[in-house]
């Protein structure tokens, strides 16, 4: 008895210190320990003692058996629970929606039947729907793993969903959302535009300001040369997986993943993103899970959510680029001469610039100055004395820059010299077709190769006394089909990123035409070649929408293409040329190639008049450039930057702001004799004509102006605080 009582006490003590997650089971064990025991009534006869002993012995055996059964039961239940609990519990009919972030700002509701997300912005009383796409997965099989007011984890046989409230302050709140596919396949999401106006994503051939008006099929979201075609099946050179809306919602997708993306095609009214194990080489090679991560934020309006996300997710330029390029035009040989350049033509061009008293930042020597593509030298058949030529240009007050590129053609010396430094296809350099023939492309992941490439350029600069560089290409589009990098990349777009990083080491007197997460590089980011046409389809009007889009993606130092376009199908007519310079006079930088004196004296005079306006606003361009370097804010801003709740300002794509000080209304239509201007709330003074002042209420106001070829319409904000 004493011995058994001791064992019983030990068992009871062990029970009391066990995991309280199983109270019913341990209550059962406790009742076994406390089963009644026969009591000794004090009689001491042998029969009584023997009977008592037999009874005690039998009872002891029963208790032991019951204890063993109890222990066995516990083991079985724990085994079942260990198998069942991690899988979560099946969703019941009434157990469909889970809410996170129950605060005054708004909330996120996860629907476990559709695997969809509904965000509600309490400040604007608007909602955003995000539909989750999981191929070969039944959403009805979702099971809850854990849930609280700030996070939820759900699981199917092939995917795991994690949603967590990231931050909340007086201005904004955000959620981190992760979808992990355990088995190979696709995961994705579709954002419904709804009643919102959406902005972002990047450069396109049909550069509509609103994503609502775009049309791109589901294609890889990679940097591409849109001037080479594939109009609705590619994005441009500057892209970012970021979008935001007039309803105060913003979405930032993890840029480390290689995505596919479609806009209104085939899903009308939606922007869809797809992540596939078939596209991601690291997933295919390692067997890791496919994981799509993104963050959704909300705030009180389009401006505030964009500012918040710009600050939170994007790096800032380290400094302003070359200030002379911000105030005086670049003169390039490209559109005027194409490849037919010589030393004499360049010097003649420079003398014409000086003789017409035109301002100049630098003269840019473009294609084709070298002996072979890839060899950085001056072709002696075209240039008798390039060192003297550059000295002569310097004496005219011009800095000199040259065109460079990441290719080496088959007949170049560089191809063999840098055999280990080009992107491979198998064990050999992969040969690609670019616009100047067949050649290899620099592997920007190879640090030794990048150093070799940079040293060749530095030698070229020092040998001839050059001042800067125009970096061309750098898009994923120009990689060989079966490319192999020296250092594997999770996302092939980082090939472009590294190219920009290399270019930035040569200083601010330079330009690039690609960008993927390169907002911190203090370079001019050039719009791809424009056609000498009027429309949104890569013509004059697309210069406005491209500049606005670059700015909101964190690239404030926009370099528009040549005034008048590239003249691929003929020189632009006089009207188009004049309207182009009247627009470019207000943009961060100006590039000339086709000269105004190639037309007539009137064109020269109207060009000078536009440049005189540029002189007036140049100090403000510099001021807003400095602000951009510290904040990432664009220099050229949409009207909603000052009027975020104005429904017309939200869609306006032919007017823009310089900082918060000027409102610009360029003439962008062929043969236009009138221009309707929309003035947003504030006090605005005409900087032309009668210099009238308009005090505009919150409703805004449309004003119709008669315009001649000489008219430049812009207004000054009398309430400007910047």
In short:
The protein is an alpha+beta fold and 722 residues long. It has 15 helices and 38 strands.
Describe what you observe in this structure.
A 9-stranded antiparallel sheet has the order 1-6-7-8-9-17-14-13-11, with helices on one face. The protein has an 8-stranded antiparallel sheet with strand order 2-3-4-5-10-16-15-12, with no helix packed on it. An 8-stranded parallel sheet has the order 29-28-27-26-20-19-18-30. The model is unreliable at 1-54 and 77-94 (pLDDT under 50). It is α+β, with helices and mostly antiparallel strands and 722 residues long. The longest helix has 39 residues, at 46-84. It contains 15 helices and 38 strands.
Strand proportion, as a percent range, falls in 15-25%
Distance between the termini: 92 Å
- What is the number of E strands? 38
Give the count of helical stretches. 15
Low-confidence stretches: 1-54, 77-94
Largest β-sheet summary: 9 strands, antiparallel
What portion of residues is helical? 25-40%
The shape, in one word, is: globular
Order of strands side by side in the largest beta sheet?
1-6-7-8-9-17-14-13-11
Labels describing this entry:
single chain, 722 residues, alpha+beta, 9-stranded antiparallel beta sheet, 8-stranded antiparallel beta sheet, 15 helices, 28% helix, globular, disordered N terminus
What is this structure's SSE topology?
Layout: H1 2-16, H2 23-33, H3 46-84, E1 89-90, E2 97-100, E3 106-111, E4 116-121, E5 126-134, E6 143-147, E7 151-155, E8 159-168, E9 173-181, E10 186-192, E11 198-202, E12 216-220, E13 239-245, E14 249-253, E15 260-263, E16 270-276, H4 281-286, E17 290-298, H5 302-313, H6 323-327, E18 330-332, H7 334-337, H8 343-355, E19 362-365, H9 386-395, E20 399-404, E21 407-409, H10 413-417, E22 424-425, E23 428-429, E24 432-434, E25 437-441, H11 447-464, E26 468-471, H12 494-504, E27 510-512, E28 524-526, H13 540-552, E29 558-559, H14 574-584, E30 591-592, H15 601-631, E31 636-637, E32 656-658, E33 662-664, E34 674-679, E35 682-686, E36 693-696, E37 701-706, E38 714-717
Helix pairs in contact: 1-2, 2-3, 14-15
């Amino acid at each position: 008895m004493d011995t058994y009582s001791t064992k019983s006490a030990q068992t009871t003590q062990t029970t009391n210190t066990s995991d309280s997650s199983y109270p019913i089971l341990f209550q059962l064990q406790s009742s076994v320990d406390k089963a009644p025991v026969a009591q000794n009534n004090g009689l001491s006869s042998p029969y009584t003692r023997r009977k008592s002993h037999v009874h005690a012995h039998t009872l002891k055996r029963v208790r032991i058996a019951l204890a063993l059964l109890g222990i066995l039961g516990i083991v079985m239940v724990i085994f079942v629970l260990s198998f069942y609990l991690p899988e979560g519990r099946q969703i019941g009919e009434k157990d469909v929606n889970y809410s996170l972030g129950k605060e005054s700002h708004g909330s996120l509701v996860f629907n476990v039947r559709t695997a969809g997300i509904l965000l509600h912005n309490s400040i604007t009383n608007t909602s955003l729907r995000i539909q989750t796409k999981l191929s070969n997965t039944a959403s009805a099989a979702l099971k809850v793993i854990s849930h609280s007011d700030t996070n939820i984890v759900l699981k199917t046989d092939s995917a795991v969903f994690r949603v967590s409230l990231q931050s909340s302050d007086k201005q904004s709140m955000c959620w981190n959302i992760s979808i992990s596919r355990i088995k190979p396949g696709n995961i994705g999401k579709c954002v419904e535009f709804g009643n919102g106006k959406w902005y972002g994503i990047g450069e396109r051939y049909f550069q509509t300001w609103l994503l609502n008006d775009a049309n791109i099929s589901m294609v890889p979201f990679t940097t591409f040369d849109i001037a080479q075609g594939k109009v609705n099946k590619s994005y441009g050179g500057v892209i970012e997986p970021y979008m935001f809306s007039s309803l105060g919602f913003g979405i930032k997708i993890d840029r480390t993943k290689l995505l596919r993306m479609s806009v209104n095609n085939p899903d009308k009214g939606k922007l869809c993103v797809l992540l596939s194990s078939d596209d991601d080489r690291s997933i295919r090679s390692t067997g890791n899970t496919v994981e799509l991560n993104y963050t959704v934020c909300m705030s009180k309006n389009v401006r505030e959510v964009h500012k918040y996300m710009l600050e939170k997710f994007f790096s800032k330029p380290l400094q302003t680029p070359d200030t002379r390029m911000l105030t005086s035009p670049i003169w390039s040989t490209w559109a005027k001469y194409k490849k037919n350049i010589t030393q004499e033509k360049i010097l003649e061009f420079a003398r014409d610039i000086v003789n017409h008293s035109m301002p100049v930042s630098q003269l840019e020597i473009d294609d084709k100055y070298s002996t072979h593509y890839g060899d950085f030298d001056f072709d002696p058949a075209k240039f008798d004395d390039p060192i003297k030529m550059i000295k002569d240009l310097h004496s005219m007050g011009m800095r000199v820059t040259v065109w460079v590129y990441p290719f080496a053609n088959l007949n170049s010396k560089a191809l063999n010299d840098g055999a280990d430094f080009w992107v491979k296809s198998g064990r050999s350099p992969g040969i690609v077709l670019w616009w100047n023939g067949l050649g290899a492309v620099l592997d920007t992941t190879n640090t030794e190769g990048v150093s070799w490439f940079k040293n060749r350029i530095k030698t070229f600069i020092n040998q001839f006394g050059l001042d800067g560089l125009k970096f061309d290409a750098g898009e994923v589009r120009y990689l060989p089909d079966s490319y192999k990098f020296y250092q594997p990349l999770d996302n092939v777009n980082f090939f472009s990123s590294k190219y920009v990083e290399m270019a930035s080491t040569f200083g601010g007197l330079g330009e690039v035409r690609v960008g993927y997460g390169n907002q911190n590089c203090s370079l001019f980011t050039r719009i791809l070649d424009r056609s000498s046409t009027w429309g949104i389809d890569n013509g004059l009007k697309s210069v406005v929408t491209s500049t606005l889009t670059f700015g909101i993606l964190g690239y404030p130092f926009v370099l528009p293409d040549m005034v008048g376009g590239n003249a691929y199908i003929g020189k632009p007519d006089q009207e188009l040329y004049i309207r182009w310079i009247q627009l470019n006079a207000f943009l961060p930088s100006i590039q000339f190639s086709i000269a105004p004196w190639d037309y007539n004296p009137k064109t020269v005079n109207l060009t000078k008049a536009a440049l005189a306006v540029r002189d007036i606003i140049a100090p403000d361009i510099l001021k807003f450039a400095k602000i951009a370097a510290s904040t990432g804010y664009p220099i050229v801003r949409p009207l909603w930057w000052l009027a975020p709740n104005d429904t017309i300002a939200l869609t306006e794509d032919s007017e823009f702001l310089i900082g918060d000080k000027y409102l610009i209304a360029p003439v962008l239509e062929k043969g236009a004799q009138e221009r309707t201007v929309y003035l947003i709330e504030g006090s605005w003074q005409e900087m032309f004509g009668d210099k009238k002042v308009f005090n505009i209420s919150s409703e805004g106001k449309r004003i119709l102006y008669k315009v001649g070829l000489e008219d430049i319409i812009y207004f000054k904000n009398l309430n400007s605080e910047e």
